[in-house]
Amino acid sequence: MAATNRDLRKEVEGKRFREDLYYRIEVGTLRLPPLRERKTDIPMIAACAMDNINTRLRKKKRLSTSAPARLEAGDWPGNVRGLLNLLERSAVVCAKDVLEPEDLRFGDGWESCPTQRGGEQLSLPEPEEGFRLQGFLEDTRCRLMGRSLDLCDGNKTAAARILGVTPQAIHNFLRREREGSGTPERPPS
Fold first, then answer.
1. Res 71 pLDDT > 90
2. b/e map 62-92, b = 16+ CB within 10 Å
3. What is the reported pLDDT for 3?
4. 30, 43, 81, 152: which could form a disulfide with 158 (CB 3.0–4.6 Å)?
5. Are residues 114 and 48 in the same domain?
6. How many domains would you assign to the chain?
7. What is the mean predicted confidence (pLDDT) over 6-16?
8. C-alpha distances in angstroms, 109 versus 11, 82, 84, 163, 177?
């Protein structure tokens, strides 16, 4: 089985794909339209995705009844993978059990839903004399990586997927933390 977003017949004609390989894999062709052309599938895909995400979370999350309508309004250039990433990112970062439309983190996600803890919105620090952006960002990065690792029971691949980084980035982060502090522990969440 193989998948592509290109018309292989045209690629063969344009000499960009090997003809012999095309005939080996062209036993049957199934065209699956992009997610933006089948938005009625989004609620079902989202429900299945949340079930899957909940297997890795300590605190189970679910979508509100109005959240799927917000999902259906998206463009989904990343197709199903983009939808899955959005749901996982939203489930991990938002503290509420029920994700409302405003909790869904589109784009890089950080501007659309304030991170909440205990029902209170967390606020950004006020820049003032002595404030160091790099220190604040590193602390935030440390906390998010630690939180994602906690939520994924230490699974670096799952934590990386949630944060939209590579597993290698998580590995490098943990290695730097061990070298910097002399301890193999994860950062606090």
1. yes
2. ebbeebbebbbebebeeeeeebbbbbbbbbb
3. 83
4. 152
5. yes
6. 3
7. 94
8. 36, 12, 13, 10, 26
Same-domain pairing of 18 and 43: no
Same domain? For 46 and 5 the reply is no
18: pLDDT confidence band, cut at 50, 70 and 90? very high
Beta bridge partners of 117: 120
- The domain of 177 spans 133-181
Q: Are residues 57 and 19 in the same domain?
A: no
| Report field, pTM of the whole predicted structure over 0.85 | no
Tens of pLDDT, residue by residue over 31-44, are 888 999 999 999 99
Give phi and psi for 52, each to the nearest 5: -65, -45
Distance CA 123, CA 15 (A): 55
Give the span between the Cα atoms of 52 and 94, in whole angstroms: 17
CB–CB of 72/38 below 8 Å? Answer: no
The answer to whether position 17 is within a domain reads yes
For the cut 60, the answer to whether the pLDDT of residue 189 exceeds it is: no
Euclidean distance between CA atoms 62 and 144, whole angstroms? 21
